[in-house]
Design a protein that fits this description.
about 0% strand; 5 helices; about 180 residues; mainly alpha
Length: about 180
């Protein structure tokens, strides 16, 4: 007995020590894996942040370059800049002008298709007259230096159809001799 019990105890002790070593090794391996995962995640987050920063910087530089190009174009050819801004907004201007018909329930035309065409052409003609009027507000015929401010207002979206600048905003660019109101 006693020798047999001591032998079993020695085997159990050895087995327990081996199992403890295995558990310890497994724990260390898990810790190493968790540490490696954490470092990889930190590196990925850092790389993502750097990429986002680079993208924001590139976007900012591109916007600055576009602003400089617009400023240069405005300085050298304000009429073209103003015309481009008006042309870009033209669909919205036409939509707003067509809004005059939005509440019409009955539209009586006495001369058939010709009358409908005439009505549409009158709206279109009014639109073109409005285009020329706005062009005159922002690009005076005399090429005054103040044209830059008016064209900038259109180019920057200040002169949108719903809020075309009042004559006081650009009136200094015009004089009474060409039929416009002074500001």
């Amino acid at each position: 007995g006693l020798a047999e019990a001591e032998a079993r105890a020695a085997v159990t002790r050895a087995s327990g020590l081996a199992e403890a070593d295995t558990t310890r090794a497994r724990g260390e391996a898990n810790a190493d894996a968790a540490r490696a995962t954490g470092l990889a995640n930190a590196d990925a987050t850092r790389a993502g942040g750097l990429a986002e920063g680079d993208a924001l910087e590139a976007k900012g530089l591109a916007e600055a370059k576009a602003i400089n190009a617009r400023a240069e174009a405005l300085a050298t050819n304000p009429e073209a800049v103003a015309m481009q801004a008006l042309a870009e907004r033209w669909p919205q201007i036409v939509r707003e002008a067509a809004g005059a018909f939005s509440h019409v329930q009955n539209f009586t035309v006495l001369d058939g298709a010709v009358g409908v065409n005439r009505a549409l052409m009158e709206v279109a003609s009014s639109g073109m007259a409005g285009f020329e009027f706005l062009r005159g507000l922002f690009v005076p015929k005399n090429g005054a230096a103040g044209a830059t401010a008016g064209a900038a207002a259109v180019a920057d979206g200040v002169g949108t159809p719903a809020g075309v600048p009042s004559s006081s905003a650009v009136g200094s660019d015009r004089d009474a001799s060409d039929g416009a109101l002074d500001g």
